[in-house]
Amino acid sequence: MTVDSSKFKLKIYQFLSRFSFFKNYAYKFYAITLLGILIPIITAIGIWKFFDVNEGNTSVLVALILVVTLGSIVLTLFIQRNLIEPLLLTETSLDDFIVNKRMSNLPTNLDDDIGRLMRKVQYSVKSIDELHKEKKDMLDIISLDLRNKITAVYNYSEMITQADTDEKKQNLKTKIAAASLEQIELIDSVKGMLEMEEVFVTKSMKQEIELETMFNSIKEQFADEIHRKKLSIEMIGDIRLISGKEALLKQAFTNLISNAIKYSNVGGEIVVNSSRMGTNTLVKVIDKGVGFTTENKDLIFDRFTKVRRRGTTGESTTGLGLYLSRKIIDKHSGTIEAESLGEGKGAEFTVSLPD
User: Fold this and answer.
1) Among residues 70, 201, 263, 315, which one has the fewest Cβ atoms lying within 10 Å of its Cβ?
2) Is there a contact between 13 and 82 (Cβ–Cβ < 8 Å)?
3) Maximum Cα interatomic distance, the chain, rounded to a whole number of Å
4) Are 39 and 65 in contact, with CB atoms under 8 Å apart?
5) Are 320 and 187 in contact (CB under 8 A)?
6) Residues with Cβ within 8 Å of residue 307, at least 6 apart in sequence
7) pLDDT for 299-310, tens place per residue?
8) How far apart are CA 86 and CA 329, in angstroms?
9) What is the DSSP letter of 355?
């Protein structure tokens, strides 16, 4: 039985579901069973009242009542079989997904308890299918990235034995250290991504966060990179407090600041600007770095984005930082958007958080 071949069998179920009394699945069965019982009784009463029952026609009338009773039983069983069709359809859909990894489109327009169940099953199966595809993609990309980095470490270690000067050896050691750090960064980012899938933020979990204190902490974290690239980072705006889960929001803004530092040119400027818009707090991270094209403005938030590239001084990237930032902001019921006037014209990331 397939979903398509079963659609016409749902007609009776859909018809009964139109009536408010039949929104409960059990009431449909009760009503059809009662109808199956009442039809023979009503027939018998009708015959007794409107027909002249005598010894000559008794057997005929009894046969008529038996035929009506049998027809009523058959009709009741037929309708009840159609009433369990949504459950059978759901079971078939689940079996097809489990065995063949094939998605079925269950009806989602039934407005009763079974309809709600089917919608939840459809949503769950779709979510599992998407997670399965994401897991496969993630493993493929991780294995490729790690293989490339491990291969680089191996090649550099082999080259050290052939290096004939201390300068060459030191250069290769620096490259080995950088490749090793990239592996650690990738593993930490993937770990953070997997943890983020299970995180949720409720209103009771939120707390007031001092924006300036948080950004000073992030700035201190990147002090070496800021000094090396001779960058200036300034925070402006009147907003002092934001609401959220501090550890998560700090991670989101750390990723945004790291991104701005990575793609800023030596001697560049980074501005963090806070303001209000209605009941939301806006925090913008603005740089004058490499920027991006309009067609890439959404792609940069993809997991392991294909448009990732090294920083202006060769800094590595996992392609997960902005993806994680968006996940965190989404879990705070906020939004994050990216804008740029084009390549080489800087970038502006705007985070909007509700109170």
Assistant:
1) 70
2) yes
3) 124
4) no
5) no
6) 292, 296, 299, 300
7) 888 876 767 777
8) 38
9) -
Sign of CA dihedral 249, 245, 183, 137: negative
CA 162 to chain centre: 50
Could you give the CA distance from residue 93 to residue 128 in angstroms, rounded to a whole number? 14
CB atoms within 10 A of CB 327: 20
Residues 6+ apart with CB under 8 A from 99: none
Helices (H), 237-279: 246-262
Q: What beta strand segments (E) does the chain contain?
A: 207-210, 232-237, 241-244, 269-277, 280-287, 335-339, 347-354
Nearest to 186 by CA among 134, 234, 150, 225: 150
Q: What is the pTM of this model?
A: 0.56
Q: How many residues does the chain have?
A: 355
304 backbone dihedrals φ, ψ, rounded to 5°:
50, 45
User: Following DSSP, what letter does each residue of 68-93 receive, concatenated?
Assistant: HHHHHHHHHHHHHHHHTHHHHHHHHH
Mind listing the pLDDT tens digit for each residue in 200-231? Answer: 667 777 889 999 999 998 888 888 889 999 99
Round to whole Å and give the CA distance between 347 and 340.
5
Helices 85-100, 113-160: crossing angle, 10 deg rounding:
10
